[in-house]
Amino acid sequence: MLAIIGGSGLTQLANLEVTHRRAVRTPYGEPSGAVTFGTLRGREVMFLARHGYGHTIPPHEVNYRANLWALKAEGAEEVVSVASVGGIRGELGPGTLAIPDQILDYTWGRRSTYFEGGDVPVKHVDFTEPFTESVRARLLAAARAAGEVVFDGGVYATTQGPRLETRAEIDRLERDGADMVGMTAMPEAALARELELPYATLAVVVNHAAGRGDSARAIPFATIERMLHETLARARRIIEALVVAG
Ligand code: HPA
After folding, report:
1. Which of 55, 116, 146, 245 has its CA 20 to 30 A from that of 139?
2. pTM for the full model?
């Protein structure tokens, strides 16, 4: 079954007919909330709100390990995450949707692996391609089916948050090759890989990153709110097309 992890602003799927919710216990503690099961135009799907259903868990406090473990334990075979980001690359202005293909990780102090010594031999998972190409391809196809234009590829830089970045930090990320910046792709993508769960992200650009475009002097929060609302509606259509395509 497909599992969707919803990010900021996406705490539910509009046309999901909820069948049940399950509070899952994991060896890693509590997930962000109960896993919601339902059908979308007749297809089964499960859903989890990354920041909790009341949007109270900041990016650095999300229990990523419990979230992915819970989804896998409940039968997820692949995971698509929706994440809001700031755009660094010129083409990635507010209102753009992107399906990134690479990650840079600037986070710290997050529980980012299931291998913690003990009796389990350490496995160094391959992470050359952090997103699963087949899931990316299906997301791209779903976007086409939904009539939505998406940017194919891009480097997602993951910062610690919850504060936004300084202009100099964004300059550095750009020199490092980042195209967009968000706070949640890591360790989520790496943990999915450790659990052998195919994983891809639909990134929703809600603002120019600090020092860019209309964020030249400050990030206008009114824009973020408006963009979240408008662009997430399009993201939802893509997710629905993905679910319907099976
Ligand atoms: N930076 C980091 N994370 C974000 C941003 C940003 O500008 N916008 C949305 N998530």
Report:
1. 55
2. 0.96
